[in-house]
From TrEMBL:
Residues 176-273 form the HTH araC/xylS-type domain. Gene3D superfamilies: Homeodomain-like. Keywords: DNA-binding, Transcription, Transcription regulation. SUPFAM superfamilies: Homeodomain-like. This is AraC family transcriptional regulator. PANTHER family: HTH-TYPE TRANSCRIPTIONAL ACTIVATOR RHAS, HTH-TYPE TRANSCRIPTIONAL ACTIVATOR RHAS-RELATED. The keyword Transcription regulation applies. GO terms for molecular function: DNA-binding transcription factor activity; sequence-specific DNA binding. It comes from the Bacteria. Pfam families: Cupin_6 (PF12852), HTH_18 (PF12833).
Length: 276
């Protein structure tokens, strides 16, 4: 199946959200806090901005260009001269900043100039909508940012620009089949043999290729996927027993053992903390 089908599975299951909070001329230095699950997208149409982070040299981003942080990272943006035209949004990729979509990206993604050409149609739509004041503007902008994220992910996958992580796996036709199946049916009793068969490889070859591409074993990836789904369902108020079943565990006790080992608390305690 195509890598874009895998993206559809990810977007359907983890329901990302976006909120455009500024569109216009960047006139002053702006600071953004880190540590939270929300990422930040800064899209530059004209002019340029300086991007500063702790422990990194300042980076110039001139339009057309973008900066994307999939998770909350403390950073500062400042205009380079006048007429810096930007659009800024928060992006929640689901999973509390630790979901598969969030981990798909590097910690920071910067694209400028010719790299932006494949994104030009939706780039133009974003700024055209931002320039107007018609009814539904905010809803349209938020939806367009999500569309922009799909096009961005698709471009990164099709051009194999990321060498490790989920994007790298989705760029590999055989591994993409497995990743898509895992996301479609995380509740299935998956075995290494079943995954290798789906990829059309021996178990040894599949294990080596998956770890080299994704950066973790297929078993660890599946566990992370299941627990990401579990956290999502727990946060929505689903009972532990039904969450355990949806996440592929034989019973609540087995689920609780794995959950506690990874998070340091029980599913019920985690759910109470998430809701209150």
């Amino acid at each position: 199946m195509a890598a874009t089908d895998s993206l559809s599975v990810l977007f359907t299951r983890f329901t990302p959200a976006a909120r455009v909070f500024y569109a216009g001329e960047l006139c002053r230095t702006s600071s953004f806090e880190g540590g939270g699950p929300l990422g930040h997208l800064h899209v530059v149409r004209g002019g340029g901005l300086s991007l500063a982070e702790r422990g990194r040299d300042a980076t110039r981003v001139e339009g057309p260009g973008l900066v994307f942080y999939p998770r909350g990272v403390e950073h500062v943006v400042a205009p380079l001269g006048s007429a810096t035209d930007v659009l800024c949004a928060t992006v929640d990729l689901g999973g509390g900043g630790e979901g598969p979509l969030s981990r798909t990206f590097p910690d920071r993604l910067v694209m400028v100039g010719a790299e932006m050409v494949p994104l030009a149609p939706v780039f133009d739509l974003l700024f055209a909508e931002a320039a107007g004041r018609r009814s539904g503007r905010q809803a349209a902008l938020d939806a367009l940012v999500l569309f922009f994220m799909v096009r961005l992910l698709r471009h990164l996958i099709e051009t194999a620009q990321v060498r490790t992580g989920l994007l790298a796996a989705l760029s590999d036709a055989r591994l993409a089949r497995v990743v898509e199946a895992l996301h479609e049916r995380p509740d299935k009793p998956w075995t290494l043999e079943a995954m290798a068969d789906l990829a059309g490889m021996s178990r040894a070859r599949f294990s080596e290729r998956f770890k080299r591409s994704v950066g973790s074993t297929s078993g660890d990836y599946l566990t992370d996927l299941r627990l990401g789904l579990a956290r999502l369902l727990l946060a929505k108020g689903h009972p532990v027993k039904s969450v355990a079943k949806a996440a592929g565990y034989a019973d609540s006790a087995a689920f609780a053992r794995v959950f506690r080992k990874r998070t340091g608390c029980s599913p019920r305690d985690w759910a109470n903390g998430a809701s209150g």
